[in-house]
Amino acid sequence: MLIAAAIFYIPANVLPMTITTALGNTQADTIMSGVIYFLFHGSPEIAIVIFVASIFLPILKLIILAYLLISVQRKSAWRPRDRTQLYRITEAVGRWSMTDVYVVTILVALVKLGFFATIDAGPAAVYFAAVVVITLIAAESFDPRLIWDALEEKHE
């Protein structure tokens, strides 16, 4: 699941998340181009929220889950309490990555002004939702008790 999420992460950030049409002009925006737009057009707070929720957290989740999987596979007994805490944080924060999908959904629903302006979800929305859902399932599938197994084997 982690490999699938990592693969979907690429098109989620390269393809357009939204396609805006206003007065006949069409513009496709990726997540990062949206962050840059808000950063330089007077809304740095929104830019930070989008960056953290849509770029930083998903990649951080992928890295942490990969680290946990590798450490369990290698039967590492190093700092099991900290690794368990990492898992809990990853599991709790994961849902917030869905913020971008919610924003796009709300924009698409609200901005339907016919000829004057429309906003449609781009192909990245599907990939991004897949990344979020797959990493949520991956985190739920991971058994944090495996972190402690190496410690028990060491004491036996």
Description:
This protein is mainly alpha-helical and 156 residues long. The chain has a single domain (2-150), classed as Butyryl-CoA Dehydrogenase, subunit A, domain 3 (Up-down Bundle). It is 70% helix and 10% strand. It is built from 7 helices and 3 strands; from the N terminus they run H-E-E-H-H-H-H-E-H-H. It has helices at 2-14, 31-40, 44-73, 80-93, 99-110, 123-141, 145-155; strands spanning 18-22, 25-29, 117-121. A 3-stranded antiparallel sheet has the order 2-1-3. Strand 1 (18-22) and strand 2 form a beta hairpin. Helix 3 crosses helix 4 (80-93) and helix 3 (44-73) packs across helix 6 (123-141).
Work out the helix count: 7
Order of helices and strands: HEEHHHHEHH
The level-1 CATH class: Mainly Alpha
* Structural class computed from helices and strand pairing: mainly alpha
Instruction: Write out the strand line-up for the largest beta sheet, numbering strands in chain order.
Output: 2-1-3
User: Overall pLDDT, averaged?
Assistant: 86
State the helical fraction.
55-70%
| Overall domain count | 1
CA radius of gyration? 19 Å
Query: Any idea of the CATH topology?
Result: Butyryl-CoA Dehydrogenase, subunit A, domain 3
Report on the biggest sheet.
Answer: 3 strands, antiparallel
Strand content: 5-15%
Count of individual beta strands:
3
Poorly predicted ranges (pLDDT <50, ≥5 residues)? none
CATH architecture: Up-down Bundle
- Shape category: elongated
